[in-house]
């Protein structure tokens, strides 16, 4: 019986020819290289993602908002909060690491990443007290001159770690009992304000060593039991803007010897109140300083606990005229941010699908949408 080659096998002579050819045409050795980032512009987005299914491994996704293109990622550890430095050259991350991933010795650090190439430049160990919560704007902030970094603590007692960025060390810890958040004064870098549970503001002034005396406390300007304020805020020059759960807009001048509170304005009219429209989200409003217009995420059928609901609509408020001038589709926005320079563009983070949505305020219905980013993104900051 004649022998036949196995099914699929090549004749011996042909196999030898292929092997000889492969030996003569070896592939070139590849050289690994890092693709440089394009210079950051006003449309670069730092998208905070605490990755809630595995909280020890948070991320900050770096995205080109103009092209809706993924650029890179920075690790943010467990419950990290971040802020870009005033000169936009450094991304600071305040975070926690455990020696056994989900247990063990706790170490809290400030990590400083170069926004040019996202490399780690240095880290500073801080007291193991940094507030472990979902990222919001008021958890970590740099003073206006970039000298100090302010980090909200919770043990659950509240205090603020002051980090000297010039000397790369902890300068002090300031108790702010019953208060929450750090809001630096734009024109007075030594001052910052915190919001207190009795409806007041407490203002601290740092000396050259990063220490502070007793705070200056305002009179109560909101009722924390009937209508508390969200801890998100926007600044219009020296004017601090905050919004309450039931639609009161507060304006506070952070200038002079002490904050000055303007009479609040409730922007929800009687008809909308009957439908129980109310603000909702995390970074739930954004400011266009050129037109002095505020974009606020709103939902109807407000109920206890709905203050984190994403936006069914965006309401456009004219701050000068103190009136609502438009109601736009909300794209279920959970957070939003406006570019820091013209031409302005508003970026929304949709809670429906983790997509980014953006539009020109002059043409708000012509919207650009991205692919989904991340796992559980919450907060975005623009370069």
**Structural category:** mainly beta
- Number of helices, where a helix is a run of at least 4 consecutive DSSP H or I residues: 2
Q: Which range best describes the helical content: under 10%, 10-25%, 25-40%, 40-55%, 55-70% or over 70%?
A: under 10%
Rg, Cα atoms, Å: 26 Å
Q: Provide the succession of SSEs.
A: HEEEEEEEEEEEEEEEEEEEHEEEEEEEEE
Describe the structure.
With 383 residues, the protein is mainly beta. Helix content is 5%, strand content 46%. The chain contains two helices and 28 strands. Strands 20, 21, 22, 23, 24, 25, 26 and 27 form an eight-stranded antiparallel β-sheet that branches. A seven-stranded antiparallel β-sheet has the order 6-5-4-3-2-1-28, with no helix packed on it. β16 and β17 form a beta hairpin. The longest helix has 13 residues. The chain is globular and about 80 Å long. The N and C termini lie far apart (79 Å). It comes from Ramlibacter monticola. It holds the Pfam family Me-amine-dh_H. Keywords: Disulfide bond, Electron transport, Oxidoreductase, Periplasm, Signal, Transport. It is found in: Periplasm. Its main location: periplasm.
SSE blueprint and pairings:
Layout: H1 12-24, E1 44-49, E2 58-64, E3 69-84, E4 90-98, E5 106-114, E6 120-126, E7 140-142, E8 148-154, E9 158-164, E10 169-175, E11 179-184, E12 191-196, E13 201-205, E14 216-217, E15 234-236, E16 239-243, E17 248-253, E18 260-261, E19 265-266, H2 270-274, E20 278-279, E21 285-288, E22 293-299, E23 311-318, E24 323-338, E25 346-350, E26 355-360, E27 363-372, E28 379-382
Antiparallel strand pairs: 1-2, 1-28, 2-3, 3-4, 4-5, 5-6, 7-8, 8-9, 9-10, 11-12, 12-13, 13-14, 15-16, 16-17, 17-18, 17-19, 20-22, 21-22, 22-23, 23-24, 24-25, 25-26, 26-27
